[in-house]
Amino acid sequence: MIDDLNTYLENLNSKWSILFYRVVWEQLSHINNLKVLDYGSGFGITASHFAKNNDVLAIEPDVETVEKRFCKNNYKQIVGEIDQLKKLKDNSFDVVLCHNVLEYIKERKDIFQEFYRILKPNGIISIVKHNPLGKIMEKVVYENNVDEAIYLLNGGTINIPPFGEVNYYNINDIIDLVKDMNIAIEKVLGIKTFWALQQNHELKNQQDWEEKMFDIEMKVSNIDEYINISYFNHVLLKKIS
């Protein structure tokens, strides 16, 4: 087992992802001594991080991904989808994490209902979602691909291997999903506003660059103008007691 996250991400050809995780984890730094569900846990990187100080259950549908998962800290891993959610007890989790998952599934309403059911009063749901405006920024600035940017601007979709087509949804869609539940959006934050736009790859290998980029990402992550153009939005919802 690989204990070092940087080494693990290098093996997955995803070292750039370290900034994503650092920003998300900092935005969720208040999660301690709680019972946490990570739904759509992927390679287990977030589950392992929070398992250091929490009781974590991870659910992931893809067996091959689970076999390659990162587990420096111990957490319980289940292979499955909504069927496994339905087996969990009512009011049994303090936090539900669902990061970059809902774009690829159809039963969003059913999943939110299960999240709501298993969440304790005053519990938190953390949703990380793709933001199409951020993708358009990346297409124009980083890739210099104006044609695809216009395609996306006109409502086009993209595919991200191996997950498939990204079915974008916005904050109003989330509001509609929870309208029959006693739940409210607490805040929306930005993730990946600047770092994916940097074209000088040599800079990205410098530790100083990573630290400075992390600092500015955190500074703008709660400013509306930057949230609107960030690659990801981080939506935090609270179950009202």
TrEMBL record:
Methyltransferase type domain mapped to chain residues:
37-126
Output the GO biological process annotations, alphabetical, semicolon-separated.
methylation
Q: Which GO terms describe its molecular function?
A: S-adenosylmethionine-dependent methyltransferase activity
Q: Name one Pfam family in it.
A: Methyltransf_11
Question: Which InterPro entries does the entry mention?
Answer: Methyltransf_11 (IPR013216), SAM-dependent_MTases_sf (IPR029063)
Q: Which UniProt keywords apply?
A: Methyltransferase, Transferase, Ubiquinone
Under the heading Gene3D superfamilies, the entry gives: Vaccinia Virus protein VP39 (3.40.50.150)
- Please state what the protein is called: Methylase involved in ubiquinone/menaquinone biosynthesis
